[in-house]
Amino acid sequence: MSTFSAPKGTYDLLPPDSATVLAVREALAAPLRRAGYGYIETPVFEDVALFSRGVGESTDIVSKEMYAFTTRGGDELALRPEGTASVLRAALQANLHRTGNLPVKLWYSGSQYRYERPQKGRYRQFWQVGAEAIGAEDPALDAELIILADDAYRSLGLRNFRILLNSLGDRQCRPVYRAALQEFLRGLELDEDTVRRAELNPLRVLDDKRASVQAQLVGAPMLADYLCEDCKAYHEQVRELLTAAGVGFEDDPKLVRGLDYYTRTTFEFVHDGLGSQSAVGGGGRYDGLSEMIGGPALPSVGWALGVDRTLLALEAEGVVREPAPSSDVFAVPLGEQARKVLFGAVTGLRREGVSADLAYGGKGLKAAMKAADRSGARFALVAGERDLAEGLVQLKDLTSGDQTPVALDALVATLKEKLK
Ligand code: HAM
């Protein structure tokens, strides 16, 4: 019988790398906790219409990449391709926008699913840490989120990233721009797919990576020239707040995100060591999304940071995170009686908050000491029948090699002192 592999575009997280991943998720979330964001979890699948209406029928995410399926009961569901629509759905369902003060600030950490062509940095299951601030229109909120993401990346030691910033306008000025851009695009020689995109989602054409298309786009109308006074003033305030906070950014008038719900502020964090999948995070304002999914008007802003790509970025910058040892103490019993006693000692240490492990499987001294070394523990606890007869265990410092006898009943106190 053949063995199984993880499905295409997915990978397993194994020790010791998995410990780094946990630490990265925690570091990305830490600034949010300090800024009043509360943790939220939503199901990994939702009504498919939540995404088609929210993220947008014309986006690649919905039209090509969604894991949609019909349940045995006939419900049309999809694995979530992103978190924003779900979080807003949950907030509306629980009436958080009515019971709490606005904005409702939420953060999440979870896997997302997109049927994309897998490559380095692009997976079919990937992990995001995200934040959404629901129900307030305030440039300080947009700036807060961008600053928090910047803080999060910096706290991990990342430096070679840039923030791209743009405004996509609002329901007043964007339609005017959209029409002007469409008019311009109709005059170009584009392939069938792109012509279709120009009709459905013309702003996405600006994002086309092909040089042949980009060459034709020279002279295309720019959104910045079409922004209404309100949008211009709003964007200027976001820019000022970022500058005052010492957060550098680049104005990118062509930044168009791959989701349809954005209005006004949009941004992306790009890392220069990642090749084509360079966006480590992104987000923006989505003032119309609530109404698009049947809720009241709730202007909101948020972002999601890609955990997988953040890890690749750390690797690219050579930021080394020392893996935490799996335990502080590793017990090596010599003989049956010692096994029982050390098993008890290990249990006692753990209950006192000292991480401890034991050589299982009846290993001999040599194999057991090797296991102790491999575990990364600072101390080995060795005991044979003779030590135990005297109520002792041998405490071996695995860094220096020093070995000292310790009374069994003083073990917890001694180790706590040494591990301080
Ligand atoms: P997004 O730009 O689609 O935005 O995804 C955010 C981040 O998730 C990306 O910058 C990237 O780091 C990571 N990511 C996306 N797709 C993949 C993939 N296939 N493999 C690995 N990593 C990936 C959103 O999802 C929005 N919900 C963000 C947001 C929140 N906007 C407002 N609030």
**For the report, how would you describe the main beta sheet?**
8 strands, mixed
Radius of gyration, CA atoms, in whole angstroms: 27 Å
Bound molecules: histidyl-adenosine monophosphate
Q: Termini separation (Å)?
A: 51 Å
Provide the residue-averaged pLDDT.
95
Percent of residues in β-strands = 15-25%
How would you describe this structure in keywords?
420 residues, binds histidyl-adenosine monophosphate, BirA Bifunctional Protein, domain 2, Rossmann fold, alpha+beta, five-stranded mixed beta sheet, eight-stranded mixed beta sheet
Description of the molecule:
The chain is an alpha+beta fold and 420 residues long. It has two domains: 247 residues, 2-Layer Sandwich (BirA Bifunctional Protein, domain 2); 86 residues, Anticodon-binding domain (Rossmann fold), CATH 3.40.50.800. Helices cover 40% and strands 21% of the residues. The chain has 17 helices and 16 strands. The strands form three sheets. The protein has an eight-stranded mixed β-sheet with strand order 1-5-6-11-10-9-7-8, with helices on both faces. β15 and β16 form a beta hairpin. The chain is elongated. The chain starts with 16 loop residues before the first helix and ends with a helix. The mean pLDDT is 95. It binds histidyl-adenosine monophosphate. The site of histidyl-adenosine monophosphate has 26 residues, from β6, β10, β11 and α13.
Write the layout of secondary structure elements.
Blueprint (H helix, E strand, L loop, with lengths): L16 H18 L3 E2 L5 E3 H9 L3 H4 L4 E3 L5 E4 L4 H10 L2 H4 L4 E10 L11 E10 L4 H17 L5 E7 L5 H14 L5 H9 L1 H4 L5 H6 L12 H16 L5 E2 L11 E9 L7 E7 L3 H4 L7 E7 H10 L12 E5 L2 H16 L4 E3 L6 H11 L3 E5 L1 H5 L2 E6 L5 E5 L3 H9 L1
Helix pairs in contact: 1-6, 1-13, 6-11
This protein binds histidyl-adenosine monophosphate (HAM).
The site of histidyl-adenosine monophosphate has 26 residues, from β6, β10, β11 and α13.
